[in-house]
Amino acid sequence: MENQDWKNLGFGYRDTDYNVRCYYRNGNWGELEISSSNVINLHMAATSLHYGQEAFEGLKAFKGKDGKIRVFRMDENAKRMQDSSDGIMMAKLPVEKFQEAVRLAIKMNKKFIPPYESGASLYIRPLLIGTGPEIGVKPSEEYLFMVFVMPVGPYFPEGFKPTDLVIMRKYDRAAPQGTGKYKVGGNYAASLVEGGLAKKGGFSAVLYLDSKKKKYIDECGPANFFGIKGNTYVTPESDSILPSITNKSLIVLAEEMGLNIERRPVPWEELAEFEEVGACGTAAVISPIKRVYDADNDHEYVYGTEPGPWSTKLYNKLRAIQYGDAQDKYGWVEVID
Ligand SMILES: *Cc1c(COP(=O)(O)O)cnc(C)c1O
After folding, report:
1. Which domains does the chain have, with CATH numbers?
2. Buried-most residue among 59, 127, 128, 142 (CB within 10 A)?
3. Is the pTM of this model over 0.90?
């Protein structure tokens, strides 16, 4: 990877040398196994293929100026995967085992971790699938947990730049009391049609409203929503939002910077009142939004073509912690030797 153009990697699948696997059989998790193959052998009647027993996670590791490798809040990802497992009746992987697998996957692929200067990072994708054969609708008795990694370019290779969102009320991402709060593949399958339409229209993502009343803002396809007005960071509260670890972290930093925090239902009409709007998640940290287009009412909410001051401050602070440039007051990063 010596002559790699790290900056222009983008976010695409890329092979690395090794991945980590762990099987659940006869009611027990086995030992971690290292594989150099990028394929798995799967029963054609596996529940993951037929009934969507699949959950995933996404996190990143960063190389610092000091050459150290840091991984961000992986205990939170481990716990969230347990919640997802409960949500679709899969075997729960112990938090410690999840962490061990992530550490191992990073260590085995050290040469793929982009250098500090590139602004790129190592994306880590853990996933859990039902592997046991069933044809009746019921949970599998066997599971496979895997972790693979790949280098990804900086989300904003040309600099931190705002994009547009679109509201289209005829599409739902998740049912009101459904699986929206779990990180399961099924939610993503359900979002592909409108996600594709949004991209075609030049928008970066769909901004979903609550599925029941279409009254409140839920989240973006793959990222949580926040708005800033006056001295307040506002983010929606809803049963169908995926609890973003980035959002959770930004809330802590925002509070530290002196902002008030409001986590509550956010009526879509409030879009008119925000001074800054952003989408947040592991991929970009913050994707500032310059415009939300309400396609049903042919109305647009405009927030300026440059990222707002609070979004910029929050983005810089979180990135600095991740890369080891700012003090890690909250114990969010673990150094991997
Ligand atoms: C993963 C995900 C997010 C972002 O979560 P992070 O932990 O911040 O990466 C937001 N919304 C959905 C639907 C997601 O799947």
Report:
1. 6-152 (3.30.470.10), 163-323 (3.20.10.10)
2. 128
3. yes
Distance CA 75, CA 318 (A): 17
Distance 3 CA to ligand 1 centre (A): 32
| C-beta of 219 in contact with ligand 1 (< 6 A) | yes
Tens of pLDDT, residue by residue over 25-39, are 999 999 999 999 999
Residues contacting residue 175 through CB under 8 Å, at least 6 positions apart: 211, 240
Tens of pLDDT, residues 180-235: 999 999 999 999 999 999 999 999 999 999 999 999 999 998 999 999 999 999 99
Measured from the Cα of 77, ligand 1's closest atom is 7
Tokens coding 144: 């496979």
Residue in 62, 156, 64 with CA at minimum distance from that of residue 113: 62
Is the confidence at residue 87, as pLDDT, over 70? Answer: yes
